[in-house]
Amino acid sequence: MKKIIFVCLGNICRSPMAELIFKDLAKKAGVEFEVTSRATSDDEVGNGIYPLAKAELIKHGITGEHRAQTITFDDIFEADYIIGMDTWNMRALYRLAGDGLAHKLKRLCDFTDKPRDVADPWYTRDFKKAYDDIYDGCVALLKFLTSVQDK
Ligand code: 4NP
Predict the structure, then answer these.
(1) How far apart are CA 4 and CA 28, in angstroms?
(2) Contact 41, 9 (CB under 8 A)
(3) What is the position in ligand 1's atom list of the atom closest to the CA of 68?
(4) Tens of pLDDT along 70-113?
(5) CB of 122 closer than 6 A to ligand 1?
(6) Is the shortest distance between the CB of 11 and ligand 1 below 6 Å?
(7) Is 86 in the pocket of ligand 1 (CB under 6 A)?
(8) Residue 149 pLDDT > 90
(9) d(CA 53, CA 127)
(10) Exposure string over 97-119, b if 16+ CB within 10 A, otherwise e
(11) pLDDT per residue over 34-74, tens digit each?
């Protein structure tokens, strides 16, 4: 089973949202993946999903729990796809992965027809926009992964 790790700065807003949205989409599509999420920083380690991120997910019928953890080189080694939310996350991931594992790293909304960062709602306070961007990215990512799996 393919293993996917979603990554953001704190692992309390965007990447756990992506984890739960992607799990929901994959379940509805009847496809199985191993899915989790991680932080590039250690600022929020052990903390649960931020209440406003959780509230936005609940508006869309999505529930779940996650405790923030920092990504490690071993996480990248063991996963198939590491999906960052923004350009800053990607820079941190490229530093950690090195040339050997760089091929596993992708930015979420690069799978859409409008490549862009998922802006950090911790700073924008716009959790709806974050949800919409992450949802778009997860739909496009699932489409990509199912097309790759079919081959
Ligand atoms: P996230 O948002 O990267 O989407 O989880 C953040 C959460 C916390 C902080 C920054 C971004 N922080 O600085 O504590």
Answers:
(1) 17
(2) yes
(3) 5
(4) 999 999 999 999 999 999 999 999 999 999 999 999 999 999 99
(5) yes
(6) yes
(7) no
(8) no
(9) 6
(10) beeebeebbbbbbbbbeeeebbe
(11) 999 999 999 999 999 999 999 999 999 999 999 999 999 99
79 and 112 Cβ atoms separated by less than 8 Å: no
**Ligand 1 site, residue 6, Cβ cutoff 6 A:** no
Pocket test for ligand 1, best of 5, 44, 54, 89 (most atoms within 8 A of CB): 44
Whole-number pLDDT of residue 109:
98
- Given the DSSP bridges, would you call strands 81-84 and 3-8 parallel, antiparallel or unpaired? parallel
Q: CB of 135 within 8 A of CB of 127?
A: no
Q: Is 14 a catalytic residue?
A: yes
Token look-up 């996480």 returns 75
